[in-house]
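Q: Convert this sequence to structure tokens.
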Amino acid sequence: MSPGLAALARCVQSAPAAGGTLGESVATQQAVGWVTDGTSEVVITTKLFRPRLRQQIVERKRLHDLLRQGSTLPLTLVCASAGWGKSTLVADWLAHDGITAGWVSLDGGDNDPKRFWRYLLLAADQAGSAAGAAALRRLDAAGSDVLRDVLPEFVNELASARAPLVLVLDDYHLVTSAHVHASIATLLDRSPPQLHLMLITRADPPLPLSRLRVREDMVELRAEDLRFRPGEALEFFSDRLGPLLTERDVLRLLARTEGWAAALQLAALRLRDRTDPSAFIERFTGADWHIVSYLGEEVLASQSPAVRGFLLETSILNRMCAPLCDALTGRSDGAELINEVYRANLFLTPLDDEHRWFRYHHLFGGLLRHELARTSPERPSALHRRAAQWYAEHGDAAEAIGHAIASGDDSLSGRLIAAHWRWPFNAGQLETVRMWLGALPAELVATDASLSAARVWVALDTGRLEEVSAALDAAEASVPPDTHLMVLRALQMYKTGDVGGAAARLREISSSADDLFIGTVHRLVQGISAMWLGDAGRARELLTEAARRAGDDDNRLAYIYAEGCLALLAVNRGDLALADSLAADAESAVGQTLSDSHFVAMFPAAARARIGLMRADWAGAWRAATAAVERGRRGAGRVELAAALLTAAAAGRICPAPDAADVDPGALLGEARGILRHCADPGPLVTTWLAEEQRAEAARSRRSGPIEPLTDRELAILRLLPAPASLRELAADLFVTPNTLKTHLRAIYRKLGAESREEAVIRARDHGFL
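A:
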């Protein structure tokens, strides 16, 4: 999960699938072409297969040479419009040179950065790179960010590897996400020598191509390079039509099509049963959509009614298998028709070695969809509904929802999204959930408790608190009282700084929520609110119960949250041994889950900082406090971030570490003060911390005048005070008795105007002695 109060859980736990199950056995999933990757997410394995090549492939040596030349550079860009043979060329070169490569066939769903990088890393793993698995673990960590956490892990692992890695991203033009493009640009900028990226696309991607050209870090193949030359065209038609065409006919056809591979292939299909190829070649000109439409219509017209109907009805699918085709067409001969279409070379590409899954060539598929919409305008909607139901029954919610949205059936789309939004949300795929919700009418989302909850969680996770409030307002006006939404309303109040209001709301909600996750959230937020409100006993009771429930449910983020807050409570009452134990337990959970990027990891860090302040471990307190602030900025509530800033301000006033020398505790204090000013009711605990820091800052301002000079001996003792050693240990180091040391300390305190060892260190720093 990415930052936000979604942090309260390992995940917002998945509801049972409606109309199907996401919990199918791996054997069943593999049989239909997808598996889970160890998370709750379904991975479409066929996206990771490179295109299967037919026997009759024209060897294009000149293009292989260009690809081979580019394989030593960070990027090869193969850019041309549909039908120029881009994917076939790259797949043929990889096979010809025996190169092991990872391949991803991208689609519109890959605009979600987390999903995009999941497939990229799975492809790297498939190619034998250990960097893929290492970065995947970081990707799955709660709160991870692709640019900040995943990409550096991937690059570092690659840099230490010996073997090269070739990654092919096919159909990159389908990616429109600025976040994804930024991640690829960064990957290319930091690319180690071991990595070679190949982008196959219909249009130039928004990447720093000019800089790569200047650096000579890329090779480009474009339509002009991909055009069939005379010798290649002669080989192409000789393999397919034998002596049917003369050399003159081939050269005329080449000129008419301008060497466009798709047009040549369609022409070859149409010419097979013609006795007058020369006359046929004279009937068209121009290598554009019109020739493809013309040839495609001719190819379709020559098919049997069964094959023609099959081609049109299955054209709405991104990928297809025989059972899915049968569900769409209402027939039972899908396997036979797929084989017939494949044998006829009708632009059908196998997606796996077993020939269970296929897809149409994009150009041919587009032509078929155009023809279907022209001849049967109502048919695509019904077909998409059937596809949605089949995918839902077979456990692929993403495909099911995509087809439901394409069908225009808002009711079906709403039901599927309501049942399945939690798993992409848990995987950090917020863009996917946002896209799904955006495809629904606003009134449908507002009148459905689960859809409204999805909208609220996504907004919470991305810090859009105004949208949270609007979504809750709309839902509360439209649906009966719902426990999930009631808890979310209290959560929204807590995050915006109305701790007292949140606590009051939570007291109105029954603690026996049917949803185990919501019940844990309820207790957790009640406990945290009680902590800030100064009710330590009630806070301990609720947080202990929340930690127990979270542990039973393997809800690691909620567990870290609760244990970290319990550690803070122990510090507040002076039980440092217990605080140490609780903080260590929470830190262990952070390490096991790699959730150090998530904002909940701020709580054990804040507790560790407060322990350091109590034990005069100034450097340790400063390190932990700055970590707490950094993590808190990734989604903590206002009161929580203010508390981290105040802790850092306290540590920054005292810490002698070099990295704290340029810190302005006043700036940290000012930021915390500004945050709390916008909190309706932050509670007495953090306001007490604020008052303490304000007093310390005022005292620091008053101590700017001259002081009585210190002796050399006093200066030597003063420089030892920041260390965590006891007075007896300091006396031993100085070879004096404890009483003599106390005498020196009294003189130091008097001259500095301090009343304690901690205050003496602060004032010594203020005056430049430390």
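Confidence is low (pLDDT under 50) at residues 1-40.
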